[in-house]
Structure to design on (143 residues):
């Protein structure tokens, strides 16, 4: 994030102070932003700090909360696997197209979704396994 901020700041100074800019900074900052966003999604998922709407589920009985949780996490797993599939296809489709200034494959931008979706899908599988086997997670153990 610091690198992204620095290169954008340098380009702003050059653009408004010297009426010139480094063209590749726009493409590089866009690519870094996409990758940082997907890395941030992994971190948010691992910390359980993503947005959750739970006021309806909290009103259910514990057994129904368990059922809703299983359904929700199964759907989340399927969504991330679908995203991985689509990202693989889109990356392959655009890999031969090069960006005009940096000359890197356009598919590199879409490739950011592949490791993110696979990592979160694996974390979902672990969560579902723990739910089926009643194995508490670290958060539930107090560690």
């Amino acid at each position: 994030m610091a690198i992204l901020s620095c290169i954008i700041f340098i380009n702003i100074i050059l653009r408004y102070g010297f009426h010139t800019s480094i063209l590749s900074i726009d493409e590089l900052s866009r690519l870094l932003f996409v990758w940082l966003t997907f890395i941030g999604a992994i971190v948010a998922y691992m910390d359980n700090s993503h947005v959750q709407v739970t006021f309806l589920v909290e009103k259910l009985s514990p057994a129904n909360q368990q059922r809703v949780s299983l359904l929700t996490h199964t759907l989340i797993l399927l969504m991330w696997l679908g995203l991985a599939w689509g990202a693989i296809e889109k990356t392959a489709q655009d890999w031969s197209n090069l960006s005009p200034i940096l000359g890197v494959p356009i598919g590199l931008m879409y490739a950011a979704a592949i490791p993110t979706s696979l990592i979160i899908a694996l974390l979902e599988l672990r969560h579902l396994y723990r739910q089926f086997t009643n194995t508490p997670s670290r958060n539930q153990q107090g560690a």
